[in-house]
């Protein structure tokens, strides 16, 4: 176990759990918390294939800590936002699968972080919200792209203008989460899914988290060409051979 000021990490072979522990602030995002998230992903042991991300104290993450919000010049604001983008890209495209087990507040920057993860599980207490319009600010951690691609620009405009809240079941319908579960069920499901995902072929997982979102940004022709390259690379690995052999032998594959 590794404990920082704002986070706590536990490792178990191919799995890691990363918990936000600013419970007195509903795990609000500060520069210090962002730095610990970055450090966690930078220093993940090579054996780790799946991370479970969750928050202590009944909340996932309530977004930017407005109590620590400082006045910045436009130049400083750009650098601050781009740093968020860089860390969120580490989560989404670092090659390790991240599962969000969400409770309570998934607001502002918390929603930006959640949508950078690959599997999202929401308990009934979850509230999805982008309240920046009511705070006189604007999203800067990637929501225009990640949340916007899920909801569509039209629905996101209304969500931000009104401060509208969505619950877990509405989030499931809209795509903000992939599972809506009862109280106390998010972490057990996350652990079950993490074990299953960790058993996949590593290169298959790597290309799923790295290629699909990028292909979504491409033209049809470029996307199909990139798919061919990804398929050729993955299908020539020893794990692809093992997967085919296991299928023919009617047994479960054993990947590297």
Shape: globular
Order of strands, main sheet, comes to 1-2-3-4-5-7-10
Number of strands: 10
Summarize the biggest pleated sheet: 7 strands, mixed
Helix-strand sequence: EEEHEHEEHEEHHHEHEHHHH
SS strand fraction: 15-25%
Low-pLDDT segments, ≥5 res: none
- Helix percent reads 40-55%
N-to-C terminal Cα separation, in Å? Answer: 25 Å
Report Rg.
19 Å
Q: Count helical runs.
A: 11
Output mean pLDDT. 94
Report the structural category: alpha/beta
What does this protein structure show overall?
Keywords: Lyase. It comes from Paracoccus saliphilus. The protein has about 260 residues and is of the alpha/beta class. It has eleven helices and ten strands. It has helices spanning about 30-40, 75-95, 110-115, 130-135, 145-150, 155-160, 170-175, 185-200, 200-215, 220-235, 240-250, and strands at about 1-5, 5-10, 15-20, 50-55, 95-100, 105, 120-125, 125-130, 165, 180. The strands form two sheets. Strands 1-2-3-4-5-7-10 form a seven-stranded mixed β-sheet, with helices on both faces. It has a three-stranded mixed β-sheet with strand order 6-8-9. The model has no long low-confidence stretch (mean pLDDT about 95).
């Amino acid at each position: 176990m590794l404990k920082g000021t704002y986070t706590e990490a536990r490792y178990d072979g191919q799995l890691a759990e990363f918990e936000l522990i600013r419970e007195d602030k509903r795990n609000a995002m500060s520069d210090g918390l962002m730095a610990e998230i970055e450090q966690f992903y930078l220093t993940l042991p090579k054996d780790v294939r799946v991370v479970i991300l969750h928050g202590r104290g009944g909340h996932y993450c309530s977004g930017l800590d407005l109590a620590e919000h400082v006045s910045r010049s436009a130049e400083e604001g750009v650098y601050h936002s781009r740093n968020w983008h860089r860390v969120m890209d580490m989560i989404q495209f670092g090659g390790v699968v991240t599962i969000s087990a969400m409770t309570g507040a998934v607001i502002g920057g918390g929603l930006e972080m959640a949508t950078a993860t690959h599997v999202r599980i929401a308990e009934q207490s979850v509230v999805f919200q982008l309240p920046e319009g009511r705070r006189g600010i604007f999203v800067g951690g990637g929501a225009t792209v990640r949340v916007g691609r899920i909801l569509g620009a039209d629905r996101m405009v209304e969500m931000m203008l009104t401060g509208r809240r969505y619950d877990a079941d509405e989030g499931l319908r809209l795509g903000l989460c992939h599972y809506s579960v009862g109280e106390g069920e998010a972490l057990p499901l996350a652990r079950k899914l993490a074990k299953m995902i960790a058993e996949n072929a590593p290169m298959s997982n790597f290309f799923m988290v790295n290629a699909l979102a990028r292909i979504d940004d491409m033209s049809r022709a470029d996307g199909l060409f990139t798919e061919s390259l990804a398929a050729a690379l993955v299908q020539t690995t020893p794990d692809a051979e093992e997967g085919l052999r296991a299928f023919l032998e009617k047994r479960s594959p054993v990947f590297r």
